[in-house]
Amino acid sequence: MATQDVQITGLVGPGYQDTRITIGDTEVSAQALTGLTLRAEAGDTPRLTLDVLALDVTKVGGQMEILIPDETRALLVELGWTPPASE
Predict the structure, then answer these.
(1) What integer pLDDT is reported at residue 79 of this predicted model?
(2) C-alpha–C-alpha distance, residues 79 and 28, integer Å
(3) With b meaning 16 or more CB within 10 Å and e meaning fewer, what string describes 53-72?
């Protein structure tokens, strides 16, 4: 599991509209998340779990172009994802 520098601000107020999350140098878009959990226990490194927005589709077939928003791509790369070489 990767350890990253994380900054979280604005977790106060109705709806958390002012929430900003930065991982490394990447700001996480609020539109990319459905929620988050921050767990900190004595003696352990704090753990941030991000609930990334995803579609729940039972079955879809055929050729499709896959588009990943720039904010989501930046977050995935910051977390260690390597995009396919064809990109």
Answers:
(1) 85
(2) 11
(3) eeeeeeeeeeeeeeeeeeeb
CA separation, residue 58 to residues 29, 32, 61 (Å): 26, 21, 10
pLDDT by residue, tens only, the chain of 87 residues = 567 888 888 776 666 667 788 888 888 877 778 888 888 889 988 888 888 877 655 666 676 677 777 888 888 888 888 887 765
Which positions ≥6 away from 72 have C-beta within 8 Å?
Answer: 29, 32, 52
Q: What is the DSSP string of the chain?
A: -----EEEE---SGGGTT-EEEETTEEEPGGGEEEEEEE--TTS--EEEEEE-----S---S-------HHHHHHHHHTT----TT-
